[in-house]
């Protein structure tokens, strides 16, 4: 029998990959499942985006291999998007690299900078992929606490007490997933100063900054950030294009070049039509964000009502695509709590524990369910 690589011994199948199989099985058995677990937008891209992709199918070069760096006009569109929305100037020639979704960027960055035994600062709670990718490349996760008492921001005194001599990368993500904590330019300034002091590459994962957020920010707004930092961003949530797989990594030109060395050995370019659709999406004006947020605001109000009906305390300051809520006192296990609701009420909610030990005692709702379905979920507890 052929044995698997040892690296598979230290990772598990992604939670949503396995759990959604169970959810789909329940649905196939006739259970009226309402899936409030995963952040996959159910809304559509704009018609202009779809039309741009359809039209691109007729272009002479549409079906050939594409550039590893993406179309020049796509990189320019990303640069314009950052200038218009974050007031960040980027050189599209060497400070921007389109990705097939920002999730792949986590792997590319890790492969480009981490050697076996290097350490990585990972937020707890935080996106589980930071840990799994760190393990896959043979590096060592070092978790730093994010807690409600500190508004889900790092404790710099605690960070300074760590042995940071082997730390190569620090992952952050504001607006924060799963809590929705906004972050601030002041926080970004502290983080940039911290990594400069300790010679660490800082990477901000920033796919949620336009969802229910009146003050979108980029780490790259901080003076000197490009010297020590990269930022990942995505069209998945901002433009309802999750399945299109369009993301970007931006920042330090030398770091971008290192990531390109990895990426160019792993794919053969993004499909032309998708790039053309992405270019159109990046031209979207303020009215697009306002129309999406009007929908998400109504959903959030209802979702908060559902959480409160479960006896939870909602983190009201949160922005982004999720509602983060603290379970009632006396609940020993978030996973047991959500499973009981899944099997009894056919509603799937994400347990906070999948994001780290500091997620115990919390659950997360995604705002990717139509209002009438959220209301139906509330009514099931009547």
Automatic annotation (TrEMBL):
Q: Which cofactor does it need?
A: pyridoxal 5'-phosphate
Source organism, top-level taxon: Bacteria
EC number(s) stated in the UniProt entry for this protein: 2.6.1.-
Q: What Gene Ontology molecular function terms does this protein carry? A: pyridoxal phosphate binding; transaminase activity
Q: What is the uppermost EC class here?
A: transferase
Q: Which Pfam family is an annotated match for this chain, by its short name?
A: Aminotran_1_2
Q: Which UniProt keywords apply?
A: Aminotransferase, Transferase
Domain Aminotransferase class I/classII large, chain residue ranges per copy: 32-381
Record carries keyword Transferase? yes
- For whether the record's keyword set contains Transferase, the answer is yes
- Identify the PANTHER family for this entry: AMINO ACID AMINOTRANSFERASE (PTHR42832), L-GLUTAMINE--4-(METHYLSULFANYL)-2-OXOBUTANOATE AMINOTRANSFERASE (PTHR42832:SF3)
The family assignment reads:
Belongs to the class-I pyridoxal-phosphate-dependent aminotransferase family.
Stated name of the protein: Aminotransferase
- Give the organism, scientific name: Flavobacterium urumqiense
Species lineage: Bacteria, Pseudomonadati, Bacteroidota, Flavobacteriia, Flavobacteriales
